Prior knowledge:
A: CATH 1.10.630.10, 48% helix, 11% strand, B: alpha+beta
Amino acid sequence: xxxxxxxxxxxxxxxxxxxxxxxxxxxxxxxxxxxxxxxxxxxxxxxxxxxxxxxxxxxxxxxxxxxxxxxxxxxxxxxxxxxxxxxxxxxxxxxxxxxxxxxxxxxxxxxxxxxxxxxxxxxxxxxxxxxxxxxxxxxxxxxxxxxxxxxxxxxxxxxxxxxxxxxxxxxxxxxxxxxxxxxxxxxxxxxxxxxxxxxxxxxxxxxxxxxxxxxxxxxxxxxxxxxxxxxxxxxxxxxxxxxxxxxxxxxxxxxxxxxxxxxxxxxxxxxxxxxxxxxxxxxxxxxxxxxxxxxxxxxxxxxxxxxxxxxxxxxxxxxxxxxxxxxxxxxxxxxxxxxxxxxxxxxxxxxxxxxxxxxxxxxxxxxxxxxxxxxxxxxxxxxxxxxxxxxxxxx
Amino acid sequence: xxxxxxxxxxxxxxxxxxxxxxxxxxxxxxxxxxxxxxxxxxxxxxxxxxxxxxxxxxxxxxxxxxxxxxx
Lengths: 395, 71
């Protein structure tokens, strides 16, 4: 691992992989929001960090000056960038690529996966409920999204250890190690090329076959487009929701009043889920500055990336009263956990369903639980934030 | 006929990105199309009992796409 020089000043030298940021980024963002709402760091070849809702929103809507062609802030910027449409697409290519996917992720489509998701949750809980303790990240939250997305894509659940390994290599190790990232992308692409080959011989009833049969302007998608989109669905469909489920359970484990209230008032769960998404939004996106412009009065220059921190926007007190508190029955909640503008998370209905079902089934089976003080909670590094070790006691 | 109010809702199709927050809050006021974008049901007239939900749908739309119009 590369030695990271210590942070001189968060306002001019921030680092989204610093251990302090990984452990608890909220005070860092709160400090920056007051001092310099669009901070800049020379690290990662130059990167801006907006921390106000207003600045994050302005950048998310401005596809003229800010490109999505790179969606991670890393040590390297390979040319051409790795393409995973539609998340890495800009107008005018973005819309057709996204329209192809949207019908598979509507509320109605996702509803069909709900009962299977409940089964997965109960099957997982059954394995550890007799032990009176568990690691709720490793034994519960991590397995739910991977099994649901495997079902949608039509790939074997037993391959999920590969998926989790690739995602760790891409989203965490890949920030500083380009070789590891490129190898994981290659392995993932080979895996999906193999799946496509199988379906050429025998089409199946799943999203991979649907993408292979999709037409844009009467023509099939290129093999590169299909594989890129499949990489996106697998990467974005797993780590993110796993993180949201884990962070929500972490909050409920350390906040008995909220936990008891949700057990007593299950009708409050949808409102509570939106608040947990606001407060612990797992996903920070990125943009590349293409043309010089101003964001909330701050000049931003080409050659730099932007860490588009929806989690920081969600903690802006100018937008949310008591922004640093989880208000479990918050009714006015215009949070940006799933992004803003054309790149709104295509899987937001799926994520919301998985998160809701995971919390409901957990509270049904394990209404009383707390953090295990004998073992630490650890958090993922980088731009998808959630607990990776979450020791819980119950019973 | 349930008593109508002076409120009407409208979803701006140029702004809607399909977050579905409005439908989640007030499924009797907003319907979703095959791409998940929201539309007001019928002429968007809000029954008296749904007034509060109409305002909540507006307050929770991340894209500011929901309008509540007072006739």
